[in-house]
Amino acid sequence: MPLIQVDNLTKTYKMGNQEVQALGGVSLTIDHGEFVAIMGPSGSGKSTFMNLIGCLDVPTSGSYKLDGIEVSGLNDDQLADIRSRKIGFVYQTFNLLPRTTALLNVEMPLFYTGVANRREIAEKCLEVVGLSDRTHHKPNELSGGQQQRVAIARALVNNPPILFGDEPTGNLDSRTGEEIMDIFKRFHDSGKTVVIITHEHDIAAHAERIIHFKDGMLVGDEPVAKSNGRGG
After folding, report:
1. Which is the most buried residue in 29, 81, 122, 178, by most CB within 10 A?
2. Is the Cβ–Cβ distance between 92 and 47 less than 8 Å?
3. What is the number of domains present in the chain?
4. Rounded to a whole number, what is the distance in angstroms from the first to the last CA of the chain?
């Protein structure tokens, strides 16, 4: 059974008296443990697609099964429950609370799940991303790369099986971006599923498979050739 299975997925937005189709009849599957990059120009539908498979939005029509469960018709509370248990998100803009320490930013998702040993779990996640010495620093005391590491630790704190990254290296220099992708790769190597949106071919090359969107349609789906030392 695929982890992600979408069939004829569409999304239409109303803008005044007009309807704009952001996604038009997309069908694909993503298996457990895959590392997938999604590419396409601005307005191609890739972010809309990630919002749908990330349970941040619901499709206008079509079917979406996550781990065998049909989620396309769930309400907001049900979608939030699935996100808290199955999905971690990392964004281009980090989305950290500015007046809150790295440790408390990472702890935040655990407040909603009733976990008792929140601090211990958050400290472990910060250790995994190499920030054990920055736990009490606020975002404005951290570099962009360090802020993204905090965001990744926060995304991992509930031990989700899926990690989504929406342009996770977009605000970083190339060297720091490679360091961030190494963390994504370690997560994938542990058996988890990774799906990222990127405009950068060097970043997409870390994936095993690249999906291309254009004008709201899936126009390409290809394996990544591993001839550069990143795989065999």
Report:
1. 122
2. no
3. 1
4. 26
